[in-house]
């Protein structure tokens, strides 16, 4: 299921006075995935390092001059190319300081845009539709430029796509209310003109996006009425002569997006991959009016998979590079990381992970769509299902409320009535209709809970989360509300099922969990699977500490200090390890360890933890590390539990965030020494394995004997 993660600011904006434009002409990815070139709508080009959000260089044209197309990076020559005043092509390198002293050439016709693919030569597109490769144009800048477009025909959008090792320029134009598309191939040159089908009278496309898939170019375009269409273009069969007559371009309706009151104005859609589209400026189906969202839709299954509210005005601009969306809004240019896993019906419904769990529990059973759609509950027989359905229909025939009726009920009814009606609504609804409805129900419940402190329906919210049709982006206040109400069971469910929880919220949960008294934690009802795991881990007693993975952390401490008698008293056997936190608190902390995060965004929030909390957290991580190293961990499979790598990653994060404080804290000295011993033992293990690496490789190279009986003894000599 697609997810949008916590965004960050790349730079500020200087929008027009009437806020009609963001002030940005374009954004282009530079030589690697961590650099972008941002061109404003007046005079400046700036190179940014994305990971640091820092400008590495900036170039400005003189007063009175104007940048008229976005700058691009030519990876063949490591140079930047831009156009000023429509006709002056400027080329410069990163170490150039003044653009006025860089190379420039004046051409004979106005330029629309310069396009460039990674590793390809820049292509210059003129306003009248002609195309030239940059080198051939610079060889004779004043060469005559032909007119491809008809009279009164103007370019609205263009892009470049590499298909089957060839470059294609795609141009959309408008002429007297008609819209056309030009597909032009370079080397050999050929062009074909298409006519787009008319939409409602007076409606023009708001945005275009193109992607190459299955040996075809797929064009996506969005109209103000919320209709998103797809047209498929073949890259083969283009003639060598220019196509004068416009061919009709077939289209198919890809999505019908909600538009709210009136029609869309500043909206944009962009294809992220073969099955996902990012949309901005379109109302969120589960949110009220007056809010702007960035959303990801799955086009294969018509489902909204992620959404994030964007503060400030939306300008209808969107760029995407390297799994990051660049979006100007208000006075900020933000970067929103995203993830779009491979599309399947199970993942679109949020059930892919659950299916794997079901398979692991019943390895001999064949997974069915019932398992995918309805989770781990045992499926009744058809006869029993029929009886249940008939009974349910009879009992609910008088109260079959619609989504709007349930929403109105939530605003005023008592908790018990809401719980009953929501449960009935979830039972009656088709699964494909649940996602927008569940989001609306959750938002309404949370809004009432925030407005009325006396109202809170924990079980209803838990039911909605269990549908797996919710995520943090759809209902961003849910987790914080659960923390405020000390509803730690709901917090646990959200941490398990939401793939897009921001790092700030993750740290808020961690702080609440680790600060909670053990007595209060034991009163909380938690998910049984995770509790069973910790019970087994804490209560397992073993008669002797066997070596696991070739080493024992406690014995390494003995060897390092070379005082077996003294350290034997300090080093605890596996059966004597004591968990520094209570059972239920440990279960909640385990959910934090398994939550997705980004190091860059998590570290600043981790620094807000107190030294006491950090010490307790590190002691618990040390306990887990020892248990995982000494106990037969493979026997714990099938339970929800953190992995050893997740434990070590969190140890490293805590040390990075609080190393100075820990070094200056006397109570932390012993803990840091133990952690050092654990790392040292791992290094020793890897070193010992490295010594026998050559011998193990020789075993792989040895040829097995062709005929081996039922029993044989073979002596292998390792040198």
UniProtKB/TrEMBL annotation:
Keywords: Activator, Nucleus, rRNA processing, Transcription, Transcription regulation. The keyword Ligase does not apply. GO terms for molecular function: RNA binding. GO terms for biological process: maturation of SSU-rRNA. It is found in: Nucleus, Nucleolus. Residues 355-398, 547-571 are annotated as: Disordered. Pfam families: Nol11_C, NOL11_N. Residues 374-388, 561-570 have a biased composition (Basic and acidic residues). Residues 1-338 form the Nucleolar protein 11 N-terminal domain. Residues 362-371, 549-560 have a biased composition (Polar residues). Residues 416-719 form the Nucleolar protein 11 C-terminal domain. GO terms for cellular component: nucleolus. The keyword Calcium does not apply. This is Nucleolar protein 11. The gene is NOL11.
């Amino acid at each position: 299921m697609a997810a949008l993660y916590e965004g960050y600011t790349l730079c500020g904006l200087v929008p027009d006075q009437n806020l009609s434009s963001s002030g940005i002409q374009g954004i282009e990815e530079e030589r690697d995935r961590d650099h972008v070139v941002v061109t404003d709508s007046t005079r400046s080009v700036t190179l940014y390092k994305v990971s640091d959000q820092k400008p590495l260089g900036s170039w400005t044209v003189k007063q009175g001059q104007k940048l008229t197309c976005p700058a691009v990076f030519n990876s063949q020559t490591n140079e930047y190319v831009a156009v000023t005043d429509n006709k002056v092509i400027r080329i410069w390198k990163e170490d150039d300081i003044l653009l006025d002293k860089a190379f420039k050439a004046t051409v004979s016709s106005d330029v629309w845009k310069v396009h460039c693919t990674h590793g390809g030569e820049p292509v210059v597109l003129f306003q009248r539709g002609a195309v030239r490769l940059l080198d051939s144009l610079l060889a004779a800048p004043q060469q005559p430029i032909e007119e491809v477009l008809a009279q009164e025909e103007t370019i609205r959008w263009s892009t470049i796509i590499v298909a089957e090792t060839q470059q294609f320029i795609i141009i959309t134009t408008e002429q007297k209310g008609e819209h056309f598309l030009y597909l032009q191939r370079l080397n050999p040159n050929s062009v074909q003109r298409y006519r787009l089908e008319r939409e409602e009278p007076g409606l023009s496309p708001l945005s275009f996006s193109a992607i190459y898939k299955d040996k075809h170019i797929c064009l996506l375009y969005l109209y103000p009425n919320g209709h998103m269409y797809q047209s498929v273009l073949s890259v083969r069969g283009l003639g060598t002569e220019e196509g004068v007559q416009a061919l009709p371009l077939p289209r198919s309706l890809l999505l019908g997006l909600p538009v709210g009151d009136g029609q869309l104005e500043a909206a944009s859609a962009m294809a992220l991959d073969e099955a996902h589209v990012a949309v901005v400026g379109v109302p969120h189906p589960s949110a009220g009016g007056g809010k702007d969202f960035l959303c990801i839709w799955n086009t294969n299954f018509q489902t909204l998979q992620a959404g994030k509210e964007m503060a400030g005005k939306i300008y209808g601009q969107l760029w995407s590079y390297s799994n990051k969306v660049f979006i100007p809004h208000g006075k900020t240019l933000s970067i929103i990381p995203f993830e779009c896993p491979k599309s399947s019906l199970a993942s679109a419904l949020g059930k892919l992970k659950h299916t794997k769990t079901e398979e692991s529990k019943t390895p001999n059973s064949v997974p069915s769509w019932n398992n995918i759609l309805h989770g781990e509950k045992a499926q009744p027989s058809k006869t029993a299902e029929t009886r249940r359905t008939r009974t349910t229909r009879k009992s609910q025939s008088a109260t079959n409320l619609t989504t709007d009726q349930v929403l109105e009920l939530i605003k005023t009814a008592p908790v018990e009535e809401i719980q009953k009606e929501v449960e009935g609504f979830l039972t009656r609804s088709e699964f494909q209709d649940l996602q927008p409805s569940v989001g609306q129900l959750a938002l309404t419940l949370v809004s009432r809970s925030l407005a009325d402190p006396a109202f809170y329906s924990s079980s209803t919210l838990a039911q909605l989360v269990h549908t797996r049709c919710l995520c943090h982006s759809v209902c961003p206040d849910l987790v914080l509300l659960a923390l405020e109400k000390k509803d730690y069971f709901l917090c646990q469910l959200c941490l398990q099922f939401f793939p897009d929880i921001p790092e700030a919220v993750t740290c808020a949960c961690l702080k609440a969990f680790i600060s909670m008294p053990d007595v209060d934690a034991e009163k909380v009802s938690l998910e049984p699977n995770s509790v069973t795991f910790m019970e087994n881990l804490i209560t397992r007693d073993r008669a002797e500490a066997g070596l696991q993975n070739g080493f024992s952390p406690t014995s390494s401490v003995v060897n390092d200090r070379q005082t077996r008698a003294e350290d034997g008293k300090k080093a605890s056997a596996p059966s004597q390890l004591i968990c520094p936190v209570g059972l239920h608190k440990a279960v909640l902390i385990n959910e934090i360890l398994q939550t997705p995060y980004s190091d860059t965004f998590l570290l600043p929030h981790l620094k807000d933890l107190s030294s006491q909390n950090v010490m307790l957290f590190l002691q618990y991580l040390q306990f887990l590390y020892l248990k995982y190293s000494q106990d037969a961990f493979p026997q714990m499979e099938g339970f929800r539990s953190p992995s050893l790598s997740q434990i070590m990653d969190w140890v490293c994060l805590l040390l990075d965030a609080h190393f100075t404080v820990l070094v200056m804290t006397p109570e932390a000295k012993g803990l840091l020494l133990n952690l050092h011993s654990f790392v040292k033992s791992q290094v020793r293990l890897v070193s010992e394995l490295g010594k026998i690496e050559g011998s193990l490789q020789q075993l792989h190279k040895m040829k097995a004997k062709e005929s081996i009986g039922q029993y044989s003894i073979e002596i292998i000599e390792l040198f």
